[in-house]
């Protein structure tokens, strides 16, 4: 199993994509450090995508004052969140939360570090080989979570039957996978998950699919941009039964078959052979996976098959929700996680430029693999990276400025105390207030600062007005100026 080093970077990561930048950079110019040239060349190298730079201590730097510079790049495959990217992340998560709320789901969370054994499944899944795992200082084998579903299963088991079912839970959390990086695939990403525990029927899957479509629609994405391929693992199960392949090999076969588009056919056949699938069955499996219509599916596995019935019912429900245009039956969707047992689905962009946008399915036996009882469950994971790529492609990225209502400034040092009081009173009314705390700033700077912040008002405290109990209020949009008492100012907000 791959073992990657874990650094202190767990809490900081974000969306790399540049957001529409509406603000000019701050006019603040930090004092130039002595090693300025070194830092600048570093930044240039970082921008040109060079590998981490090793830095020498600048000659002549006094000991103890400035140590050697570290690389300013985050670890490979991870992200920082400068404010503009953080605003985008918050916006995205707010939309995840809002949709989950509309569907009456409750939010849960789990630790980022879990016991390694939660993930060491034996069906040959990629995700297991990609674990960021290590031994903690107490000698326990732990791993950074690569997904949220095992943690959710653990929590359901821990809560036991005392819960009132069905559980409808959602979570938004960072996941770590030591992946080969491609567009939209990173070593860390955030995932929005919605899961329903305790409902055996496809009514649960229909709710989840409807939530996903609601989310896309909220963001301005249409069924011309995105589709959701839907299938059912029972299709493959029926084919395996036809060839008398033991049920035990089913999860491993699903994981192998999921790699069909990535690996050469001989390699797939070799892996299937190792999993106990005879070569005459391979043809049958491949044929089943190429099906795109229910009629063909019925012809292959029979109209009475559970897979056909479930798929038909799910598509009928989709009509009720009005999401039928988004769904496409496609038997080639199997998904690479071993635990799925029934419906499986994957969101894809219709221009075929991006990796899967989201994915999920039914996993009725995951809890029993952890020692609990079989419990009907289904859910999906929706990453933060591919959706942002899609929004960029479709020019749907929102403009998210940092919004400031009032800038408050004391024109003389002796008025800093009342200025703090004015800021406090405005903030208590819910106004976003930037109090000028720097000293010696000129009016030219203040107006520029207001412009950078896109502030709506400037409140100035000068001694002449303040002696009359008043402040100078400049409405920056209307370009009007009035003298007001603080009470009048607060009332007028
Ligand atoms: P998954 O297909 O492995 O499923 O991941 C779900 C989604 O997470 C993907 O469709 C993608 O949006 C995002 N994702 C996964 N890996 C990466 C990566 N390396 N970089 C960026 N984004 C990524 C699961 O994880 C299941 N546990 C989902 C689930 C929940 N099934 C039932 N409940």
Automatic annotation (TrEMBL):
The residue ranges of the Aminoacyl-transfer RNA synthetases class-II family profile domain are 77-401
* Record's keyword annotation contains Protein biosynthesis: yes
Q: Which InterPro entries match?
A: aa-tRNA-synth_II, aa-tRNA-synth_II/BPL/LPL, Anticodon-bd, Anticodon-bd_dom_sf, His-tRNA-ligase, HisRS-like_core, HisRS/HisZ
Family from the record: Belongs to the class-II aminoacyl-tRNA synthetase family.
Enzyme Commission number(s) of this protein = 6.1.1.21
Q: SUPFAM superfamilies recorded for this chain?
A: Class II aaRS ABD-related, Class II aaRS and biotin synthetases
Q: Where does L-histidine bind?
A: 147-149, 177, 191, 195, 335, 339-340
> Which species is this UniProt entry from?
Physcomitrium patens (Spreading-leaved earth moss)
Does the entry feature the keyword S-adenosyl-L-methionine, yes or no?
Answer: no
Q: Which CDD domains match?
A: HisRS-like_core
Q: GO BP, one example?
A: histidyl-tRNA aminoacylation
Any GO molecular function: histidine-tRNA ligase activity
Q: Residues annotated as region Disordered?
A: 49-81
GO CC, sorted alphabetically, is:
cytoplasm
Tell me which PROSITE patterns the record gives.
AA_TRNA_LIGASE_II
Q: Which reaction does it catalyse?
A: tRNA(His) + L-histidine + ATP = L-histidyl-tRNA(His) + AMP + diphosphate + H(+)
Listed name of the protein: histidine--tRNA ligase
Write the record's keywords in alphabetical order, separated by commas: Aminoacyl-tRNA synthetase, ATP-binding, Ligase, Nucleotide-binding, Protein biosynthesis
């Amino acid at each position: 199993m791959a073992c990657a080093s874990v650094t202190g970077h767990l809490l900081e990561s974000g969306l790399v994509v540049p957001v529409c930048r509406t603000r000019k950079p701050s006019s603040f110019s930090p004092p130039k450090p002595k090693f300025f040239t070194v830092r600048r060349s570093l930044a240039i190298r970082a921008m040109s995508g060079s590998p981490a730079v090793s830095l020498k201590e600048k000659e002549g730097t006094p000991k103890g004052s400035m140590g050697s510079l570290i690389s300013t790049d985050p670890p490979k495959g991870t992200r920082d969140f400068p404010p503009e990217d953080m605003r985008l992340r918050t916006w995205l998560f707010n939309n995840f939360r809002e949709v989950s709320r509309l569907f009456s789901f409750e939010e849960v969370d789990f630790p980022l570090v879990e016991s390694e054994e939660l993930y060491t499944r034996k069906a040959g899944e990629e995700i297991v080989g990609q674990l960021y795992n290590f031994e903690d200082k107490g000698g326990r084998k732990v791993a950074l979570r690569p997904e949220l579903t095992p943690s959710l299963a653990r929590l359901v088991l821990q809560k036991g039957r005392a819960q009132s079912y069905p559980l409808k839970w959602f979570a938004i959390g960072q996941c770590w996978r030591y992946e080969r990086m491609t567009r939209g695939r990173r070593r860390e990403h955030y995932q929005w998950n919605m899961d329903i525990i305790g409902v055996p029927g496809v009514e649960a899957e229909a709710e989840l699919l409807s939530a996903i479509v609601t989310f896309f629609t909220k963001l301005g994405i249409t069924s011309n941009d995105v589709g959701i391929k839907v299938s059912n693992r029972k299709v493959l199960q029926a084919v395996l039964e036809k060839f008398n392949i033991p049920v035990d090999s089913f999860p491993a076969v699903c994981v192998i078959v999921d790699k069909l588009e990535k690996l050469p056919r001989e390699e797939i056949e070799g892996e299937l052979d190792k999993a106990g699938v005879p070569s005459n069955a391979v043809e049958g499996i491949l044929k089943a996976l190429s099906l795109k219509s229910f009629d063909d599916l019925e012809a292959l596995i029979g109209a009475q098959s559970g897979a056909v019935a479930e798929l038909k019912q799910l598509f009928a429900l989709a009509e009720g929700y009005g999401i039928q245009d988004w769904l496409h039956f496609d038997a080639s969707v199997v998904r690479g996680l071993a635990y799925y047992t029934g419906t499986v689905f994957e969101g894809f962009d219709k221009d075929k430029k991006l990796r899967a946008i989201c994915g999920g399915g039914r996993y009725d036996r995951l809890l029993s693999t952890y020692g609990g009882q079989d419990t009907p469950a289904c859910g999906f994971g929706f990453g933060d990276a591919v959706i942002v790529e899609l929004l960029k492609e479709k020019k749907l990225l929102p403009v998210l400025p940092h919004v400031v209502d009032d800038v408050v400034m004391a024109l003389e040092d002796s008025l800093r105390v009342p200025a703090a009081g004015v800021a406090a009173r405005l903030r208590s009314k819910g106004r976003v207030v930037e109090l000028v705390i720097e000293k010696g700033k000129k009016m030219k700077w203040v107006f520029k600062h207001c412009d950078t912040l896109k502030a709506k008002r400037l409140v100035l405290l000068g001694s002449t007005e303040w002696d009359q109990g008043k402040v100078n209020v400049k409405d920056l949009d209307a370009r009007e100026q009035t003298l007001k008492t603080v009470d009048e100012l607060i009332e007028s907000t």
